[in-house]
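Hi L., both proteins are below.
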Amino acid sequence: MNAALWLALAYSSNLFADDCRACHAAIAESFSRTGMGRSITERPAVSPATFYHALSNRHYTFTAGKLKRHQVDAAGVEINVIEKSIDVAIGSGNHAVTYAHRTGQGRLLELPVSWYSQPKAYFMSPGYDAANHPGMSREVLDTCLFCHSDSPRPAAITCRRCHGDASAHLSKPARGTIYNPKQSMEVCLQCHLETVSRGISDSIRQPGRSVFSYQPGEPLAAYKLYFDRADAPQPRFEVNHAGYRLMQSACFRKSAGKLTCVTCHDPHTAKVRDACNSCHQSLHARKENAAACPACHMPKRTAQDAIHVAMTDHWIQRNPKFENPRQENHQPYTGPVVPFYTKADPLTLAVANVREPSAASAALLAKYVERNPANASAFVSLGKMLIQLNRLSDAEQRLRRAVTLDPMLTAARTALAVALGRQGKLEEAARVLEAASSSNPDDPLVWFNLSTTLRMLNRADRADAAMREAVRLQPGIR
């Protein structure tokens, strides 16, 4: 699919608040053409194409509104066939578009092949260029959707993401009755401050905060705390590193807060301002066109976690030196982390540094869930660790709580079934997994665990059927 087609699709499907457009028609129109304004497209059109991924030995075929995946056996017969409708496109197409399927249960599943605009071709989605990638089962959670969508619906980003609640402004249209993002670059950092994409959680939300609860104007630390790897930031470069890399720059550090994202970027038009000469008055700076400065001092680079896109490196350097990766780096970081930008309390920092199961780590997680009694994922993390420590009764208790808090959280049901099965409660474990397979029939691990449990219950036929479904969803699962 070419870029012009993507633009046309995004413009026709994007929705903006009519309340804003009524007074700010020109701004709303120009914003609708930016990457943020085109971040989500419902029911996108896709170009017919085929793609073969050698590492996982899987064939993909794009047809009208659908993506089919299959393998071929020794006789040339298609096996392990899956076909999903393409219901949502995530990304503007400036760099890439990743597709998602909406299940009958209301989940969004990321599809493994994306469109990349620079090579104008289909390749594996970021993180999927591996032999054991998650196939068509990876759920697009709210934590992933947040930076691409205005709401969990999903929907393209609108005015409220940066300006917040407009009710006071609508009742009294005047300066000062709506938030001005120029007051703080934290409005930008809510999405553009990812320090690392693999191995660790680069941020942890504060207790009681839901994913889409950040309000422009509030301190970012009131919403979440950020962490970084303890090693040097060079030569790492990842696809969502703009804010993180900018903060490494001498220009940023010496500006005393004057250099922000909007110094160079106009968010209403996506135009880049010629801002360098406002500070740099050397002979070199005066002789050069300021618009040309980024080409040398902020060059475009290939991201380690998305090798088919070239992103601007926002670490402003006198003489940047780097090598572009030729394949995605899937090696997760497992070392210690340190606070970044925000000040972390001791418990949250200690939890962020938990790596291996131990009695001390379990005690930390237990304290953390006491502080976050509505956080289902935290209960799952604690429950899984307790299973590893063979504290099965404790794990069962925590995981039952997780299922109660979030019945749609498949990881909670799967882990609960493991805790039950390890205690010999096979009948209940099977029931839990049957419920999980109904709630999320696209998860191969659910079917694999169900097959194992049914076989232990001497229900061979049902166990075989469940295993066949696990293999169809995730060939090579073991």
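That was the first. Here is the second:
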Amino acid sequence: MKRLLAWLMSGVVLAGLLVTLLLPDAAFADDLRNEADDKIAARAGKVDLNNSSVRRFQQYPGMYPTLAGKIVLGGPYQSVDDVLSLDLSERQKELFQKYKDNFTVTPPAIALNEGFDRINDGQYR
């Protein structure tokens, strides 16, 4: 009986090894990138004015939520300086100029701009 059980167990182990040889290789994270991942990587740590939500402006004192909302709703932009053509107060223009180097512009992506996600992307403190 012990010998039969040992044969059965070795058969199960051998079958498991054969199945692992026949299965495709594991997918790595580099292979699973999508459009949103590429956009996030392209902005290089800066806030993308065409593809970021209002919440991304929280790190800049004075911009969230009023000025950030105007910027998000005023796009799309061809350059960072296009924001200055919005209806902004002098204080808002000064504030934007102060943080201007922290922003970038990439072409808008539907994956990041669909619906109302730019106003409320569901991320809370």
